[in-house]
Design a protein that fits this description.
mainly alpha, 7 helices
């Protein structure tokens, strides 16, 4: 993924956050880039499409070809929360997942690697997002 693509994705995320009337820290881009907190990462990168509560109703959801998933119901599909599958799916760069990059969802592992290169920090960021997703389950 090119630097221009990453920049475009981040710009859309920031614009969508503003459009949703979400409060922003004085330096939202820097905060999102340095924070490893799952909720911070989710709100900065996932909420524009999936919504702040993960219901699939983010401010840009209606402009997407495929409606974003309701992430609050991941556990109800199989009866267990699919932790490792989600980490791999969101990461996208460690496995060949055709949904990422082809139907609109970015390959977040590559983006996070460009923001904060140590692989261990990328893995921690992904795991923290999945922890946050687990807290949203209904």
């Amino acid at each position: 993924m090119t630097a221009a693509t990453v920049l475009a994705i981040l710009l859309v995320s920031c614009l969508a956050r503003g459009a949703a009337g979400q409060s922003q820290s004085p330096r939202p881009g820097r905060q999102a880039a340095i924070s490893l907190n799952g909720r911070d990462t989710f709100e900065a990168y996932c909420a524009p499409c999936h919504g702040r509560r993960g219901a699939g109703n983010g401010p840009v959801a209606s402009s997407l070809t495929t409606r974003p998933s309701d992430l609050r119901r991941l556990k109800s599909v199989r009866g267990v929360f699919p932790r490792e599958e989600l980490v791999s799916f969101i990461d996208g760069s460690r496995r060949a997942i055709t949904a990422h990059g082809t139907v609109g969802m970015p390959i977040w592992g590559e983006i996070f690697m460009q923001l904060d290169p140590p692989d261990a920090r990328v893995r921690r960021r992904l795991e923290n997002v999945v922890d946050y997703l687990e807290s949203l389950q209904q």
